[in-house]
Write a structure and sequence with these properties.
- The chain is of the alpha+beta class.
- It folds into two domains: 66 residues, no CATH class; 69 residues, no CATH class.
- 28% of the residues lie in helices and 18% in strands.
- The two termini are 19 Å apart.
- The mean pLDDT is 83.
- This is Nudix hydrolase domain-containing protein.
Length: 158
Amino acid sequence: MPCSDKFTIDQDNKWICPKWSNAADVNGAFEKVIATAIDSELFPEVLHGQHSEMYRIVGAPGIKIERLTTSLFGIVAVTACLIACVRNADGSIKGVWISKRGEEVLSSGQLGVMAAGGVRANQTPGEYILEEAREEVSLSPDVIKQHARKTGVIRYAA
């Protein structure tokens, strides 16, 4: 990743920046480095020559970064996933709905959950699920609000 005058590197090769005084400065420093990487085509398999949507950096209030670059910086991204199940009368799970991805999307033809993806910087996971359920599987926000339940958190490294 290219370095800019906004970053300095200590002996342990950790990026530090004494010039940062607020979130806008941090965001600007990341934007400059990322724009240079995109313009220079340094990571074409990851960045595809384009900017994407912004993600929040977990644990860093107000700090945002391009979605496609989170893995390049080793930054944790927040995703949300809607899994639909059918229950028996006693409440036990009878089955799980599986969807097949359309031809126009990434991993087309693959089986997966109802709706899932990265939560943008300006959203909560719940807001994201409302939007994606409508967009990906035509479920209205009212149906989701009535039936969906937050069930937990899964941590994984991709």
